[in-house]
Each structure stands twice: as structure tokens, then as C-alpha cells.
Amino acid sequence: MNSIKELTNVDEYKEFILSRVNERLTNDYFDITLVGSEGLAVSGRGNNAWNAYVASLNILNAGILFSKSNLFVSKLFETGTDGKRKSLEKHHLFPKAYLKSMGYSDAKINQMANYAYIDWKDNMDILDDAPSVYYPIICSGKSDEEIRRMESENALPHGWENMAYEDFLEARRKLMAAKIKAAFEQLKKNVQ
Fold first, then answer.
1. Residue 58 domain-assigned?
2. If you compute the radius of gyration of the chain from its CA atoms, what whole number of angstroms results?
3. Torsion angle of alpha carbons 133, 135, 138, 139, nearest 10°?
4. Higher pLDDT, 16 or 192
5. Distance CA 41, CA 170 (A)
6. What is the pTM of this model?
7. Per-residue pLDDT tens for 3-23?
8. Number of DSSP helices (H) and strands (E) in the chain, helices first
9. Is residue 1 a part of any domain in this protein?
């Protein structure tokens, strides 16, 4: 706070903030810190890293995962509901019951990298099947190009549905951090 007392105009504030951002949000932050236990390698309802990832989906105009209607993620954050359910639901990509049957604890199951927001109607179709079972069904009717775009927009490694869960978490955290960095860089360009 003492540092900003001396600032007298908008340009000085802007320069001060950008210098602090550039000091702290380095490539190491995005490639190491954000991917690790201080960022996306945690479980729970949400954290700042998860919120930054979701914001990045909005900034980068990502399509809704599994959507047949080609809506953007930002659309599901608009006010309104479908019946008594929220339009947008947080989905376990590797379903909870499936992972429990394999002996995983809640802390491992509820990793940020195992979550994705999807339309509630799609969530109803998935239930507790392994990704290798439900993903080909969900993707039926989509071209390989559409599937790859959907995966890229939602930070999913291609072939994720057949990956070992631990390998999936590691790969997805890196892709999520890359999405956050891309959105951050886009915002930074708008400010400078």
C-alpha cells in the first residue's frame, strides 16, 4: 500500500500493476506453480486456479464440452435454468463411482483436473461409466476435427478417455495451465 501512495495518475497505476503482474506471473508460475499443489493439483469445491481456468474458457470462447448445440461455456453462465436444475453442472470426467470402484479416495477423485462444466442434460447421459465407455457414445456424430477442437478448447489431451487416471490428471493440469496462460496473455494485450 505504501508503494501506491506515491502514484498520482492512471498511467503510473497501470505501470505499477503491470510491473507487479510481470514479476509474479512468469513462465515458471504457469508451467510449475500453477500445475502443482499451489494451483490445480488440489481437490475440493474450487480454488483460484479453478476459477482462473473457468474464466479462461470464457475469455477464449471455448465451446461447452460434449455439447451437441455448439454453445460457448459463457452461455451456461447466463441467468436462467432448465426446470429445477442448473444449466451448467460440474462433472467428473472420470466418474466418482467408477474411481471409487478402483479404490481411489475422495481427495484423489475430486482433483480440479477431473472436473469439467457441461450441460446438465449431457451429465445425465454419462452417469457412472468409464470414460472409455461413455466418451465414444457422447462423441458419436462428431467429426474427428470437431472432437479435437472440443478437446483442445476444454484442455483435454487427445486419447484421454483411454489414459490411466494418474497420467490423465498430470496431462490435463498442464493443458489447463496453458489455457489460463493463453487467456492471461490475451487480457494483457488488451491492457497494454
1. yes
2. 19
3. -130
4. 16
5. 8
6. 0.84
7. 777 788 888 888 888 888 888
8. 11, 4
9. no
